[in-house]
Structure formats: C-alpha cells, structure tokens
Write a structure and sequence with these properties.
With about 210 residues, the chain is of the alpha/beta class. The chain has 8 helices and 6 strands. Helix 6 links the parallel strand 2 and strand 3. The structure holds 1,6-di-O-phosphono-beta-D-glucopyranose and magnesium ion. The site of magnesium ion has 9 residues, from loops.
C-alpha cells in the first residue's frame, strides 16, 4: 500500500467518548437515555445526521431553528470536553505507527466526518504528519458514502486501490469498501465484521 487513510475519532484519538457524553446530555433533554448500543450507530456519521437519528429514537421533532440550535449546543458541549486534550489522548501505538509510515515514505491522510478534526490533530500534536486532510467541512455526503475517502486518496494523488483505510465505525467501513479500498477495522471484531481485518489498536504494527 502507498497510502494510509485514517479516520479520527475512535481510531487516532480517544474522542469518541466525548461525542458520546455530549450526545447523551442532549438526548436527556428529550427524556431519552442514549445507551452505548445506540451510540455505536452514531459513530462516524455527521452531526446533523446524528441529531436526526436521536430525535427519531426519542420520538421527537424540532423546528428548524431549534434543530440548528441543538446541533450547535452539542458542539459546544463537545468543545468543552476537548478543551484541554493533548497527546495523551492518542490511542495506543498511534504515534509510533504514523512515524513508521513516515520513515518508509508512505503517504498519510485523514478521512473524518468531524468539523473539529483539524483542532483535534493540532491539540494532540500530529497535524504536521498528514499529507492530506479531508474533514467534515469538505464533504457533502456523510459516511457510509465513500466521498470522504475518495477525496483523501485524491489529496494524496493516489488511486483508491493503492490506499487502505483504518476505521472504528461500521458506517466508515462501508464507506471505505464502497471507495474500493482495503479496510482495517480498529476495535471490536463483532462490530466491524465487514472489514478485511480487525486490529485491537496500533501496538506492534509492521508494514
Ligand atoms: P463533529 P470520525 C465523526 O468523526 C464522529 O465519529 C462522530 O461521532 C461525529 O458526530 C462526527 O465525526 C461529526 O463530528 O460534530 O465534530 O463535526 O469518526 O469520522 O473521525
Ligand atoms: Mg471514527
């Protein structure tokens, strides 16, 4: 493989838990208890799609203004959670693996649904390791649509078949597959059945 494309939340950094805490707080406002099982379905999908899903589970509807306001408040809660994160938030083995790829002159890209991706990369000190960054501000279709990963490959100047994707969410695995890329799941093999292979983390990775 020439190109390595990484999802952000739940793959490079342990921020998935902060999205969960923020959504749980919002869901409570609708008297809805958001469980880890529900949250699994929100991973990797965009902010507005997530809010639509929570409202559907809660059996609630919001006016357009309240919807926008609620999505903004969720983001504020998330930003509060990540206000003091640093490199300790990187998941096990991430930094070593990124440096190993660099040492082997491999291309590295980010393919994330998050509009806060750059901020998180900056705060955790890995921003400069990326040759291309595609985040939620640059795509019009959320995962499982392949747009984010196709744009990342384009940013690296590589055909999709030369790229592999690391993903922690079923929607992201599906997006990578639809993009025609090899996909390595990071996390629970039960949840990531559609991936080509699943690793628990980046410790002891070789290329
Ligand atoms: P934001 P990823 C995704 O990032 C998260 O998994 C998902 O929980 C979140 O709702 C989405 O980004 C949008 O994030 O509200 O920060 O724009 O996993 O694709 O890196
Ligand atoms: Mg993710």
């Amino acid at each position: 493989m020439k190109g390595y494309i990484f999802d952000l939340d739940g793959v490079l950094v342990d921020t998935a838990k902060y999205h969960y805490i923020a959504w749980k707080t919002i869901a409570k406002e609708f008297n809805f208890e958001l469980t880890p099982q529900h949250n699994e379905q929100l991973k990797g999908i965009g902010r507005e799609v997530s809010l639509h899903q929570i409202l559907q589970w809660a059996g609630k509807t919001l006016s357009e203004t309240d919807f926008t306001d609620t999505a903004l408040r969720k983001n504020k809660l998330y930003l509060e959670q990540i206000s003091s994160i640093d490199s300790s938030e990187l998941l096990p083995g991430v930094l070593n693996f990124l440096q190993l790829l660099k040492a082997h002159h491999k291309k590295i890209a980010l393919g994330s649904a998050s509009r806060n991706a750059r901020l998180v990369l900056e705060r955790t000190g890995i921003l400069l390791l990326f040759d291309a960054i595609v985040d939620g501000t640059m795509v019009s279709k959320a995962k499982p649509d392949p747009e984010v990963f196709l744009k990342a490959a384009e940013g690296l100047g590589l055909p999709p078949a030369d790229c592999c994707v690391f993903e922690d969410a079923p929607a992201g695995v599906q997006a990578a597959k639809s993009a025609g890329m090899k996909v390595i799941g990071v996390g629970n093999p039960e949840v990531l059945k559609a991936a080509d292979t699943v690793i628990p983390n980046f410790l002891n990775m070789k290329i």
